[in-house]
């Protein structure tokens, strides 16, 4: 299984519009962060987790020719805003794209992309099949079992996903004991770490390290990174052994 980081930035991305800070003006390409998303390839299938505002460019940048499914973590704009652009894959593949998420996210998609779900569909609208999934209940997808795991984004439930010994968690602030149990045995973890300062709805660096230590994977990659965190080269120096800072277009083999 191959995992590609399509984007590793927070809701504003990095650089942030009109920001004068050194991170936003860094010449290090690792400090250019599109909105957070990953692509998972296995069994000749391609799955994307979240379709944020940069989805179109992410697909072009990675030269993606086929999309088989989308997993949605939650309904915030930085995770769903690019969904309309799956219609390019609809056209090329001549089939709809299944969107796996919980009812709350599906309800938001029906509202946000109302034209895709209306009784009369204008020609060319995206063709989406909403597939409801439930936290704590595995579902089969192209020969693998995927487990949705609920974490809390302040007061909002967000879905993380586990496939075999790999797990992806973004926009978490707290994780329940029940969800920690579902993460036992994970060897490769992708986890959000917004910044060093306290935040109401995202893990800080210190909190992310605590979560990683508890799950105890072999490798943890930090994502959903803000310009307030610092430059990539400086973040690296803060990290203990086995924890790494991700960057856009990083590929890991699992």
TrEMBL record:
Q: Which domain of life is it from?
A: Bacteria
Q: Which Pfam families match?
A: Lactamase_B_2
Q: Which Gene3D superfamilies match?
A: Ribonuclease Z/Hydroxyacylglutathione hydrolase-like
Recorded hits in InterPro entries, A to Z, give: Metallo-B-lactamas, RibonucZ/Hydroxyglut_hydro
The residues covered by the Metallo-beta-lactamase domain are 34-227
Q: What is this protein called?
A: MBL fold metallo-hydrolase
Q: Which organism is it from?
A: Sphingobacterium daejeonense
